[in-house]
Amino acid sequence: MSSKKLILNSSRNFEIIDITAMINNEIDIKSGIVNVFSKHSTSAIVVNENESGLLKDLELMLSDLVSDKYSWQHDRIDNNAKSHLKSFLLSSSETIPISDRKLDLGTWQSVFFVELDGPRNNRTVDLTFISDLNE
């Protein structure tokens, strides 16, 4: 088992950052799995298609589901309840197979870091690699 970190900066309140190539650059095993984990409760890790219309649809859907029409209790603390609630709907991690020293994704799949409370600097994504026993 080995681990590495990605450090990301976001430039918008809501931003979807394709981190597939960054993860592939960090792979140091021939085959196994990697767990990709965001260390922030106002962000997410998702696997899906990198198509601009779909990515805009995700933002629209989340904005519709977690709207301004409510007075969110958490806003009394730091005024970012919507970001936390959106992260509940997504996931903080994904586990992805590795084959031939790269992510073994489907044809249209990419791995994304989803910023829900930006812009932010120094967002940390942990990568934990577990190699096959035969390696």
Automatic annotation (TrEMBL):
Coiled coil: none
SUPFAM superfamilies: YjbQ-like
InterPro entries cross-referenced by the UniProt entry: UPF0047_YjbQ-like (IPR001602), YjbQ-like_sf (IPR035917)
Cited Pfam families: YjbQ
Signal peptide: none
PANTHER family assigned: UNCHARACTERIZED PROTEIN YJBQ-RELATED, UPF0047 PROTEIN C4A8.02C
Family: Belongs to the UPF0047 family.
NCBIfam families per UniProt: TIGR00149_YjbQ
Name this polypeptide is given: YjbQ family protein
Source organism of this protein record: Methanobrevibacter millerae
